[in-house]
Write a structure and sequence with these properties.
The complex is a heterodimer of chains A (370) and B (490). Chain A contains 15 helices and 12 strands. The longest helix of chain A has 27 residues. Chain B has 2 domains: 238 residues, MetI-like fold (Orthogonal Bundle), CATH 1.10.3720; 219 residues, MetI-like fold (Orthogonal Bundle), CATH 1.10.3720. With 490 residues, chain B is mainly alpha-helical. The chains are: A alpha/beta (370), B mainly alpha (490).
Chain lengths: 370, 490
Amino acid sequence: MTDTRNNRSAVLIPVLAALVLAGIWLAALPRSDTEATTLVVYCAHDRIFAEDVLNDFTRQTGIRVQTRFDTEATKSLGLINLIVQESASPRCDVFWNNELLGMVELQQQGLLEAYRGSGWNRIPERFRDAEGFWVGFAARLRVTIFNVHQVAVSEETFHTLLSLEPARAAMAKPLFGTTLTHYTVLWHLWGGERLKSWHRDLRLRGLRELDGNAAVKDIVARGTCDAGLTDTDDVFVALDDGLHVEMLPVRIFVDEGTSADATTPAEPSQPSQPSQPHYTVCIPNTVGIIKGTQKLTAAQRLVDFLASAETELALAKSKARQIPLGEVDTSLIPMEVQNLTAWSREGIDLRGLLPARRECLEWLKTEYLK
Amino acid sequence: MSLGSACWWTLIRTGVLCLCAGPICVCLERWLRQVPDVWRPCALGVLLAPFLFPELLVGYTYRGPALTSTDVAEWLCSGLLLFRIVPLGVVTLIASPPGLASASAFHCRWLLAYSRGFSLIELGRLLLCLWHGTIRRVLPALGLMGLVAFQEFELAALLQTASWTDWFIAAQRVGLDRNEMLAQSMWPVMMQLPLVVAIVNWSVRPHDFHVETNPETGSSRKNNSLALTYLGLALIGGCLIPAVFLASNLLGGLRLMIGQRSQLLGLFQEITIAVAVSLCAGLATWSITERFLISQRGSQLIRISLQAMLVPGLAGSLLLSLATARLFQQTWLQPFYDTPIPWVVAVTVWLLPRAVLVRLWLEATQPGEGLHLAKLLTTPVRSPDRASTETHREGDDQFSKQSRLAGRLLFRLRDQPRLLAIGLLCYWAYLDLSTAYLLAPSGMPSGLVRLYNFMHFGRSAALSAEAFAFFGVPLGIICLTIVILRILRR
C-alpha cells in the first residue's frame, strides 16, 4: 500500500510543481485586456542602472516592463544575435542597446520599426537615425584608466606603456561591447592592416586581455596593471569605491604621423589642438522598436521616455554618470559629467561605421575563435 | 585561443586533476568507511560541502587574486576544481561494485611475478589483475570527475582561465555560423565520449554494494590523517573563505537592499521562479529515474530511450542549453520557445545522470535488512485462535501503534534519504546558470543570472546581500517547513 502511495506521489508531485510553474508563467503573461500594457525589453545596459529607469517608466505610464538583461562579459552582442535568431516570431518589443553599431546592424537587417517621436526630435542628428529606426541617448566615453599610485596620468605614460611594457596594460577582449566599437573606429581610421599588426604586436608582447571592462578597472585598481582601456562608467564605480584611479579620454589621431601612437588618452586640461585632428570615442545608449511588435504605442512611449531629458538627467546623476546628448538643464548635471561633455563633442560620428564593424568583427572571429 | 587549443588545454587540466584526485579519493573512501555509523552523515556533509557550495560564490571570491596573472588564475582554478571533483569521486567509489580481484590477489600475483623475474607474460597477468581489481573499480569515479572537470564553466569564466566552454559562449555571442558551431562542437563531444560511454555503461550495470567498516590498522592512521588534512584544506578553501568573503559585506549590502524596495521585490520574484523551476525539474528527474531507469519498469523501448537520454545530460548544461535553444527556435517546437518548457526540459535532461548516481548511492547506503524489517512491521500479524473480541481489539490497537512506529521508521530509513536526494537535485537545478541564462522565457528570469551579472561588476556589498537572499530564502523555507512538520506530528 505504501509503495502504491509512493508511486502515486512520484507522479503527482512533479505534476503539481509543473502546475505551479505554469501558474507563474501565466501570471507573467500579459492578459488580453491589458496586452498593450506589458512590454518585453531586451536591455544591454547595466542592470543596476537600467532597472531604476524602467521602474520609473512603469510608475509614470502604468506600462509593465519585462526585461531581459545580458551579462557584463558579453554585453550587447548576445542580445543582438538573440533578436536576429528570434526574428521569425520576435518576443522582444523594444531593444535598449548600450552602444550604437549593433543597432545599425539590426536596422540594416530590417528588424527595426521606424519612429520619430519627441525623444528623437531632441537628440542631435549624429546620435540618431535619420529615418527614426533608432535614437541615441546618454553616452559613455572610452577612456584610459590609470592607477595613480603607480604611474603618472598622461598620454605619454600610456603610450610608453604600450611601447615598452604592454604586459602592464589591460584591455577587454574586443569581440564584444564598447571595445568592439573602439576597434571599429580604429579599423575605420587606420585601416584593417594597421590595426591587425598593432593588435597582434600587443598580444604577442603580453597585453592583458580580460573578459570585460569591469575586469580592466579591477586589475588596474589593484595595481596588477598600471593602466587600461575601459569606459567612463566603470571608472566612476572605482572612484566611488575610493580606489586610487584616474582617467583620460581616449583620443585617436587622424594625422598619419601621430596616429602611430595608437590609442592614446588626452590631457583633460588640454583639449584638442588644431594641428592634431583627432576623435574621441563617445558611445551612446540606443533604443529601437523591434519590427513586428504588437504593442507599438507602448513601445513608442518607452522610446520617447528613454530619449527624454528626464532619463538623460537620471542617467547622468546615476553612478554611471552618463553624458546627456540632448538639451538638458546644465545646472542639474553633476560636475564630473560636465567635464566629460566637452570631450563627447569630439566624438567620431559612428553611424557610417557598420561596414568597418562587420569587417573588423570577421577578422576578430578569426583571431579569437578559429 | 582556438577551440582546438582550448579543448586540449581543458583536457590536459582534466587529466592532471583526475590523476591527483584519484589517490585522494581512495584515501578519503577508506577514511569514510572507518567513520562510525553515527558520525557518517556528518563526515559526508563535510566531504560534500566543497562540491555543494555555490560555484559562483567560490569563483567570485577568488576572482580578484586570479586577475594577478594567468598562472595564478590557472592554479586557483585547478585547485578549486580539485576540491569540487574529489567528493564526487569518493561518492562514486563507494557506489561502485567491488573489483573482481582483491588487493590480496594482486599482492599474490605480484609475488608470483617477482619470483618468476617479471617476464612479459607475468607482467601482462599482473596488469590484467590490476585492471580487474583497482582500475575497473576506480574508472567510473575517474570518468565522472573527468566529466565534471572538463565541463567546468562558471569557475573558468569567473577566474578567466582558458576553457572550451568560454569559447562556446563567445562563439554564441558573436553569432558564429550555426553549421560551424555544430562542426566545432564535435571537439568537446568527441573528447567526452569515452567518459560518457564508460559512465552510462556503469550506471546501467546492476550494482551490488554496501558500505563496510574495516578494522583500524597502523597504515589507516596515516591514511586518516592525510584524509583529514585534505578535508580541512578543502573546507577552508572551498567553503570557509568564500563564506567569510560573502559575510564581510553582508550588513552594508542588506541595508542597501532594504532601501531599494522594487529591487527587493524583483529579487524575491526571481527566487520564486528559480525555486519553481528547480522543484519541477528535480521532481520530474527523480520520478523518471525511479520509474524507468532504476526499477526497470516500463517497456524496453522506453527504458532504452531514457538510458539514451543520459548522454545529452552528460554533455554538460552549456552545450545542452545551446542545443535546446536551437531546437525550440528552429523546429515545430517553436510555439513553446518562450515558455518555461525548454528550461525545465533542459534542466531535467541535465539532471538525469546525476539522479542515477544519487539513486545508486542511496541504494549503496540504505540498510536493506532494516528496511525489510520495517516494512514487515506494517503488515498485520494475527494469530488464528483469537479468544475474544476484546483480545481482538487489543491486537488492533497494538497493531495500529506498531504500524505508526513502523511508518516513522520507514520514513527515517527510506523516505528521508529520498527527500534529501530530491532536495539535492532541486539544489543543482537551482544553481545551474547556463540553462537559466539561455532558456528562461521573457518575464521569468532567475535570480542566479542577476548574481552572475553582479559578479562581473565587482559590487560586493550588493552581491553579498543578493547572494544571501538567493541562497538563504529557500533554505529558510525548508527549515521552517521541517519545524512546522515536526510540530504538527507531535
